[in-house]
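Entry 14. Ran structure prediction on the chain below.
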Amino acid sequence: MKYLAALSIILLFLNFLPGCSPQKPQPADQEMERFIEELIAKMTLEEKIGQMTLFAGQMDQTGALIQADFEEDVKLGRVGAIFNVYGEKNVRRLQESAINNTRLKIPLLFGLDVIHGYRTIFPVPLAESASWDIELIEKSARIAAREASAEGLNWTFAPMCDISRDPRWGRVVEGAGEDPFLASAIARARVRGFQGDDLSDKTTIAACVKHFAAYGAPQAGRDYHSVDMSERTLREVYLPPYQAAVDEGALTIMTAFNDLNGIPATANKFLLTQILREEWGFNGFVVTDYTSIHELVPHGVASGELDASEISVKAGVDMDMQAGYFQAALAHLVNLGAVDENLINDAVSRILKVKYQLGLFEDPFRYCSPEREQNDLMTPEHLEIAREMARKSMVLLKNENAVLPLRKDLKTIAVIGPLADSRRDMLGSWAATGDWTKAVTLLDGLKEKLPATQIINAKGCDIEADSKEHFEGAISAAKKADVVILALGEAAWMSGEAASRTDLGLPGVQQELAEALHKTGKPIVVVLMNGRPLAINWIDENIPAILEAWFPGTMGGHAIADVLFGDYNPSGKLPMTFPRNVGQIPIFYSEKNTGRPYDPESKFTTQYLDSPNDPLYVFGHGLSYATFDYSDITLGADKISETETLTVSILVSNTGNYDGEEVVQLYLHDPLASVARPVRELKGFRKVFIQAGKSVEVTFSLDANDLAFYRQDMTFGPEKGEYRIFIGGNSLADKSAVFRLE
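Output, structure tokens:
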């Protein structure tokens, strides 16, 4: 098999893969180019290296900037960007220091991890992805940008584009799940939301695509751990979302912590130069993750700061986050002749262009507006959209005997569980400057929804403690109620960075609490709040109704109440498979068939002795209070050429009693190819609203681009032959049709 040697040259001429063409060209800005060129010509080597240095600030609980060591560096022009500093006064203070004290008056960039909202906190990204609502996801990022820019920020370290098929890894909460097609659409939406269509707009901020690359596939699901995979898997599964974000115009890229096939991402020229710049045409700048140049030393590929700095800058890194290695080592490396100053010039040019595009040279204080800081945070409009986003993110996992929606005339409701009134946990991880004291809990939402209903609250147990001392109080509350709403799940800190888990069951004694309440015979609705797929077999087997609410954000309690009582019909679909147990991981819908496909009648096929193969809940799963029926598929033709487009249509009918939205999903299978192909791959989806008793025709278009893959010789494109389409409401869609590519 011919592998890496000619691959980069070949790929430059391939245009089939969605999002795999070079970054869309921007109109030449001769004025910007001339300005940057003249500015660099005036800069000393030390001033250039200063632009390549990013340091973190520290805020106290009142929102004031704590004196930091880097402030003297700012005055000397030895820093180009600051992160974790926000607020009009704080940003203005440091920007004034840079403008008033440095020779060339180059403005600073100000960044923050604005991941799922800034002050108004939206559901965690994995939850938003469950909405499959691309327009609304873009809108939530737009609001986050508006709020962040109102407090002086102009750069966010998002979107996270890491595909992950291992829920042990805590950072699945920040991504879009397991599928590259869905994740690519979401990556584009987030970039559009942050950056808008006019970077000179003061309400836009620069996006930073992270973590490049394949950070979501660490061995053993352990954060920061090694990643080892074939180039085919890398290119077909893990790279497309990053590339989609680059194609959408993302201004910056962040390197990953992991090594990929033995080479740390921050030292990986194959990733940062060959793929990112030469193949994709990325023209923004590359920043490391926190101290990751320093981490080349414990990785074992660099001996110290000189070695690590040389390796990383030659690999394609433009800016060093927090390690301070570039500041300490690059000038010496240039003077030694180990690093060409032109390499420094190129990096600085890319950084300065981003500052120029954001309008900072025209007005360094354009993001410092006391009026906007006063008026643009947590507005009624923002809060209402956060509530809508939370509702649409929720997934109805089970609803046996139509327990949900609940009646509003219930006399007594018991609201039980450690997450029923946990304000801190509503926001989830990476909640930027969100104020947890203003979060609406489930208990809050129910009390406002049902002012005439007696609502009894009992915690029952803590999230992770082993004590059962409060079980009796919870059981007593349940016995007095018409229905029990049981809020279970993880603490917010249990997902996110450095939050890997080997046990995906409910922490502590939460399942035992559910078992004790189940014995009362009262109808129970479980509301899950968590940042990853959980293994909840007992809950699924014994509880009639389960709503996956994730960590739903500032307005989460209102949104949960809206769904439970039918003011909103749930429409979310899982972006990530829920396993039965950890032993099934990694588990995902787009597996390959193997030479011995599963056969329950034959032992010697791909299966477990002690567990079914199938997951607890499949990718794309999500119920509704409505019921949707699918007609047979109609094809515009039974065969197409590589230059033709195939029209695929299906009639979807709402046969239930509720109006509702359905995510219609199209999957593709190539049954005979030069390499084994997945049993199904998502190639299209539409979220459609259908009134009760009505039908909607949903149409998709497929062409050779949708059929392309990395063939046996690692060239990219489609192969002639038969293809099968599946359409339905989840990845087990059973309506199918066949066509040929000729």
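The first strand starts at residue 53 and ends at 56. Will compare against last week's run tomorrow.
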